[in-house]
Every structure is written in structure tokens, then in C-alpha cells.
């Protein structure tokens, strides 16, 4: 029997703990069992529900076409796990190999998967966030509460932030016949994710569907009445908007606070790990008992200049979870990297918007199919002379081809007249992404390599 076989036999036993009863956590647990793991498996989740699907919460659930309680994720197999639900992880003791829970319990592990995902960024003023009518949208309970409010006879909704989630909420509100104002501090909707050129098309789309879109402004205050109910919002341009509901859509916060003081390389940008999902410690040394997957993870990708990428994508969570689980039970020579090409989709205002690759990395853009003014097009992003991403409005059938071009490092601008059915010369333009140091709403891929403007990490002595 080889040494690798001996190691694998041992790794298929013992205690594995998954922190995060999420899409990534569930798919990892299923893969562990598929890969022959026979030891104890513990699933820890801060919500009282088993893993459920989040994308329908800002779409079908708000429209009443699906109940939030009916969004449970389908099971691929029985995972024979000990579920610890409704209690959050509060700390990690790597020396004792224990996860500390908020109720004071501890859960021992031999290997640990961090899949704690993200939460909605809250409104900046807690007393205003507590007003009746102010919502965030991330969880099953959030969606149920917001849907009840939207169907209770409100007259105007304010959406703060025109990223993907905010735009989907605005779309649902218009479909429900509600008046909607969207306040976006960037120059256009979706600008942080797709750039200003595509953002201009999203701007026209929203205005054409009756959205009162206010770009280049921030909400400075939310005002309530004497009963604690939201009644008005004040904007940075000096105007005010009467509204009974405000949906805060200011992006996501990665759930890493519970790892503070653990010696793990974790912070606001996520948990740093290698391409095999193994977590780094604060000194940049890879661990062999800690793994990360899903929205909370950030790892280098060779297709994208080895930038650390944090991906808020459904498909990435599944793929990365399966890679992490495989590597948790396999010996070194059989481990595989996570090299998934990012992919994201959104349905809003009757349009299917989809992207592949990393648009915010692009320094040039060409429209290769359709036209921006037609709200039906495919745009390709270039980076240093090669194809790095593509985005489409109602043109998803073309993106599989461009996904292959991204993986192959194909040259930019593309010259596929037969495929794209174009005869005019492709003229690259600046995709018009905002200054990365300025806040915008809604990027789904975060480039999270070291920024020279940040203070570097202070190294600490390694544990004995």
C-alpha cells in the first residue's frame, strides 16, 4: 500500500466540521460523503433553517410566485450529519482544534471548512435602520418580511443601491405596480460590476420601465414619524423623497469576525486560501486542516493575473465547495485546483443579464453582438490584449463561446465575424469602471490583491 493510500485512508475518517449551513456547506458535505468520508460530520449554521436557495428571494419570492420557506436546496444524498442550527460560530481555537459557539458550546474538529458566506451590509445609522419599513434582503426571513410589506398597500419604495440585488428589487416592485425610486451613488446602475458603458444601458432600461432613478447621489438620512415608521429619505443633493419602504442594498459583508485572533488570514475581504481551498495563516503559510469555500473565500486565479478573487456567485460556491471537499480527503498528489471561470446572471425588467470572467479587470470593451441601444447585446472585455470577460443583455447563448475564449487566453479585440455576424470594425472603448477607491454598489467579483494604500499585515511568531 502506498504512502498516499495510507494518508487517504486516514483522511476519510475523523471529525470534519463545516461552519456555514449554506449552499457551499451543503454541497461540500455531500461531496465528502461521495468521496468516501465515513467519520463524523457537523454542520453549524447561524440561521434556524437547513440550507436554502438565495437567488429566488429577490425575484420569485418578492413577486409571490414562490414562498421563502419553499426554497430549501434539493439534496443530492443523505449526509448523515449532526446539525447545529440557530447558533453562530463565535471563535476558533486552532491549538485546541475547536470551534466555539455563541451559546458557549465547543465543537472539536480534525479538519474544518469555513463556508460562512456573507451578510447584507446594514444601514449606517442603527437608529434609522430600526425604523418600521427599513429592510435588507439576504435571508429567508428578510424576503418574507419584505414581501408582506410590499403587498400591504404601500405607495412608494426607495431602493438604496443599484447593484444587482437592488436592481432586482426595483424590478420586482415595478412588476407589482409600485412606484420606485432608486438612489445610486455611482454614475449608473451596475457600474461597479459591469462598468459605465453597460451601466448606461441599464440606466435607460430602468428609466424606460418607470423607475425614478437618481444617480450620483447618496441617501444622507432616513426620517421616521412619531410612531417609528419610515416616512422620508434625505439625499445628498438636498432633495427629499417620501417613502414607506426603504430597501438597503449596499453590498455584502463577509462573515469573518468570528475568526479574529485565530491566526487565520481573514478580514473584511474574506478568508485567504490557495487554489486548493487550503486556508493561509496570518504569516502566509498554508494550513492543512483548514479550508474555505463560497462567498467568504478569496483565492488566486492564474487566468486573471493571479489576483485574489472573491466571488459572490452561486456556481462558484458549488464548484469551490466540491474542490475543497475533494482535497480535504485526498493525499497531496491527488489534490486539484479551483479554476472555475466566474459566471453570474440576473433577471430584471424583463431582461436576462449574464456575465462570465472578471469584467472589473477589463481595460477595454467592444460590443460584438447586437447594440447597446437595443438592450440586446454581447460585450467583450479585454485586459492587456486578451479576452478577460463578457457580458450580455438577452444574449446568454453566446457566453459559452466567450467562456472558452477566456480560458484559452484568446487575443483581444476578438475577430469572429462568422460567429458574431458582424461586418463593421470592432472599436474598443474604455469600459468606464469607477475609481476602485471610490464606493459603488454591487460588484459580484472583487479583485482583492494587496493594495499599496493599505497598511501591510503585522507578522506574528509562528506557533510552536
What does this protein look like?
The chain is of the alpha/beta class. The chain is built from ten helices and 29 strands. A six-stranded mixed beta sheet has the order 3-2-1-7-21-20, covered by helices on one side. It has a five-stranded parallel beta sheet with strand order 9-16-10-11-12, with helices on one face. A five-stranded mixed beta sheet has the order 18-19-22-23-29, with no helix packed on it. Strand 10, helix 5 and strand 11 form a beta-alpha-beta unit. Helix 2 packs parallel to helix 8. The two termini are 32 Å apart. InterPro entries: FAD-oxidoreductase/Apoptosis, FAD/NAD-bd_sf, FAD/NAD-binding_dom, FAD/NAD-linked_Rdtase_dimer_sf, Reductase_C. Keywords: FAD, Flavoprotein, Oxidoreductase. This is FAD-dependent oxidoreductase. It comes from Streptomyces lunalinharesii.
**How is the main sheet built?**
6 strands, mixed
**How many domains comprise the coordinates?**
3
Class by alpha and beta content: alpha/beta
Total helical elements: 10
The count of strands amounts to 29
Name the CATH architecture of the largest domain: 3-Layer(bba) Sandwich
Detail the topology: elements first, then pairings.
Blueprint: H1 3-11, E1 15-19, H2 23-34, E2 40-45, E3 82-85, E4 89-93, E5 98-101, E6 106-108, E7 111-114, E8 118-120, H3 126-129, E9 134-136, H4 140-150, E10 156-160, H5 164-175, E11 179-184, H6 191-194, H7 196-208, E12 212-215, E13 219-224, E14 230-235, E15 240-242, E16 245-248, E17 252-254, E18 266-267, E19 270-272, E20 278-280, E21 286-292, E22 297-300, E23 308-311, H8 314-329, E24 343-348, E25 351-357, E26 364-371, E27 376-383, E28 386-393, H9 399-408, H10 417-420, E29 445-447
Helix pairs in contact: 2-8
Amino acid at each position: 500500500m502506498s504512502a498516499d493510500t495510507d494518508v487517504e485512508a486516514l483522511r476519510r475518517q475523523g471529525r470534519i466540521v463545516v461552519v456555514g449551513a449554506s449552499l457551499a456547506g451543503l454541497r461540500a458535505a455531500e461531496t465528502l460523503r461521495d468521496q468516501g468520508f465515513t467519520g463524523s460530520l457537523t454542520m453549524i449554521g447561524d440561521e434556524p433553517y437547513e440550507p436554502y436557495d438565495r437567488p429566488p428571494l429577490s425575484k420569485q419570492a418578492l413577486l409571490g410566485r414562490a414562498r421563502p420557506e419553499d426554497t430549501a436546496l434539493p439534496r443530492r444524498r443523505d449526509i448523515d450529519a449532526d446539525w447545529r442550527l440557530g447558533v453562530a460560530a463565535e471563535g476558533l481555537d486552532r491549538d485546541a482544534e475547536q470551534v466555539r459557539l455563541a451559546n458557549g458550546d465547543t465543537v472539536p474538529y480534525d479538519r474544518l471548512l469555513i463556508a460562512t458566506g456573507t451578510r447584507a451590509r446594514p444601514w449606517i445609522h442603527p437608529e434609522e435602520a430600526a425604523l418600521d419599513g427599513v429592510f435588507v434582503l439576504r435571508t429567508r426571513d428578510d424576503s418574507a418580511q419584505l414581501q408582506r410589506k410590499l403587498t400591504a398597500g404601500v405607495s412608494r419604495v426607495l431602493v438604496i443601491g443599484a447593484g444587482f440585488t437592488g436592481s432586482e428589487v426595483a424590478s420586482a416592485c415595478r412588476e407589482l405596480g409600485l412606484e420606485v425610486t432608486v438612489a445610486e451613488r455611482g454614475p449608473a446602475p451596475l457600474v461597479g460590476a459591469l462598468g459605465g458603458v453597460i451601466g448606461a444601458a441599464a440606466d435607460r432600461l430602468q428609466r424606460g420601465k418607470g423607475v425614478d432613478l437618481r444617480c450620483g447621489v447618496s441617501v444622507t438620512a432616513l426620517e421616521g414619524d412619531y410612531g417609528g415608521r419610515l416616512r422620508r429619505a434625505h439625499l445628498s443633493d438636498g432633495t427629499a423623497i417620501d417613502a414607506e419602504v426603504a430597501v438597503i442594498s449596499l453590498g455584502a459583508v463577509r462573515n469573518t469576525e468570528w475568526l479574529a485572533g485565530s491566526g487565520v488570514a481573514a478580514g473584511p475581504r474574506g478568508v485567504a486560501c490557495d487554489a486548493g481551498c487550503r486556508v493561509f495563516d496570518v504569516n502566509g503559510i498554508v494550513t492543512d486542516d483548514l479550508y474555505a469555500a463560497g462567498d467568504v473565500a478569496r483565492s488566486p486565479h492564474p487566468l486573471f493575473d493571479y489576483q485574489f478573487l472573491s466571488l459572490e456567485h452561486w456556481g462558484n460556491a458549488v464548484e469551490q465547495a466540491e474542490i475543497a471537499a475533494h482535497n480535504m480527503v485526498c493525499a497531496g498528489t491527488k489534490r486539484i485546483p479551483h479554476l472555475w471561470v466566474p459566471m453570474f446572471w440576473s433577471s430584471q425588467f424583463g431582461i436576462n443579464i449574464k456575465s462570465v470572467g472578471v469584467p472589473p479587470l477589463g481595460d477595454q470593451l467592444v460590443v460584438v453582438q447586437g447594440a447597446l441601444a437595443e438592450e440586446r447585446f454581447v460585450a467583450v472585455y479585454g485586459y492587456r490584449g486578451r479576452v478577460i470577460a463578457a457580458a450580455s443583455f438577452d444574449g446568454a447563448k453566446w457566453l459559452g463561446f466567450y467562456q472558452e475564449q477566456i480560458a484559452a487566453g484568446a487575443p483581444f479585440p476578438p475577430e469572429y465575424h462568422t460567429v458574431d455576424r458582424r461586418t463593421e470594425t470592432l472599436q474598443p472603448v474604455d469600459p468606464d469602471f469607477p475609481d476602485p477607491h471610490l464606493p459603488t454598489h454591487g460588484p459580484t467579483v472583487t479583485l482583492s490583491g494587496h493594495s499599496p494604500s493599505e497598511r501591510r499585515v503585522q507578522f506574528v511568531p509562528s506557533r510552536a
